[in-house]
Design a protein that fits this description.
33% of the residues lie in helices and 17% in strands. The chain is built from 11 helices and 13 strands. A 7-stranded parallel beta sheet has the order 3-2-1-4-5-6-7, with helices on both faces. Strand 8, helix 4 and strand 9 form a beta-alpha-beta unit. The longest helix has 18 residues.
Length: 337
């Protein structure tokens, strides 16, 4: 069996305690491969938890360690996997554009899962390494000219999200408190519908929170901070629907799959990958604005919560993700022989 190195980010622990989508996916890949008998080493923070071999030079995520310098942590970490490259048959990077800059310095092939393009300013790196091996996490989130080998949807551990057969009364928002995620639009939907809204997530834009979120908070619209998996499940148990009114094209939307796994329908903006994750009219509704989102609330009774769960089982489980990556690994390893 081939020896695989999984390079996870070190902003947070793998898997993260609360926020950390990239760490979640990297950890799920490592766990899924290990369960299927692969020889896997996870390069992550020292406090990470995995059934794979764990290799670390950074003890704690730099977002959780006030004494850490993010760039020092990142480059100590990234360089470590490439200094050990000869010990592996493949390096699978979840570390954005930075790890690409090492990829031509080693003989071991490198596969990069692109979790999103954070800014046009990073694109020169992707252009330089455009002939590398890339996987997209949705068909919609691709840049022209890159050597994509496949789209492999992110997979979640379904055992962590028990099915909630009965709908609750609340609207919920789970995600970064940032204009891109449309928290202000979720608030407007709650105000116009008269339904209670619970907002959970890390604050990534302080000014946005102060100016567009905090003034609307009340007994009916509450912000509860970041939550862990148990906290998510508490929200899913009381959820009527998840509001995901993103203002920019979604790259994948891990929370869409998590909510669906729990049987919670999603009302999402029809931007980017949302139509790949959500089956409109079956597991949720795809909308173009707040008015359509409010109207969609009246149609939630048309949806079958079991269908939400079944869609995740068919398309967004760890098992389905790992099978997708196994096929990509086979192409790379056969071509490297």
């Amino acid at each position: 069996m081939a020896r695989i190195a999984i390079l996870s980010p070190v902003a947070w622990r793998t898997p993260p305690r609360q926020y950390g989508a990239w760490e979640t996916v990297a950890g799920n890949v490592a766990e899924g491969l290990a369960a299927r008998g692969w020889d896997v080493t996870l390069f992550a923070t020292g406090d990470s938890q995995t059934h794979a071999h764990l290799h670390s030079v950074v003890e704690h995520g730099y977002e959780e360690d006030p004494a850490a310098d993010p760039k020092v942590s990142e480059y100590l970490h990234i360089s470590e996997v490439f200094e050990h490259a000869a010990e592996f048959d493949l390096i699978h990077s979840h570390y954005d554009f930075m790890a690409l800059t090492y990829s031509r310095l080693v003989k071991t092939p490198v596969l990069t899962t692109i979790h999103g393009f954070s800014s046009p300013r990073i694109m020169p790196v992707y252009e330089k390494y455009r002939n590398g091996n890339f996987v997209s996490i949705s068909n919609s989130d691709r840049a022209p000219g890159l050597n994509y080998l496949a789209t492999v949807y992110n997979g979640i551990d379904l055992s962590l999200y028990p099915f909630q057969a009965e709908a609750g009364d609340d609207l919920i928002f789970l995600g970064r408190i940032h204009p891109d995620k449309g928290v202000h639009l979720a608030i407007e939907v709650a105000q116009r519908s008269g339904l209670p809204l619970i907002i959970a997530g890390i604050i990534q834009d302080d000014a946005y929170f102060r100016e567009q979120v905090e003034p609307s908070l009340s007994d009916r619209i509450r912000y509860i901070g970041a939550v862990d998996i148990a906290g998510k499940n508490e929200l899913f148990a009381r959820a009527r629907a998840l509001l995901h009114l993103n203002t920019i094209p979604e790259r994948f939307g891990l929370v869409l799959a998590e909510a669906s796994a729990a049987g919670v329908p999603v009302i999402a903006m029809d931007l980017g990958s949302c139509r790949e994750v959500i089956d409109g009219g079956v597991t949720g509704f795809l909308v173009k604005d707040v008015t359509e989102a409010v109207q969609a609330l009246e149609r939630l009774c048309e949806l079958d919560r079991e269908a939400c769960r079944c869609r995740v089982e068919r398309h967004f489980s760890v098992e389905m993700m790992v099978r997708g990556y196994e096929a990509v690994y086979a192409r790379i390893l056969e071509g490297n022989e």
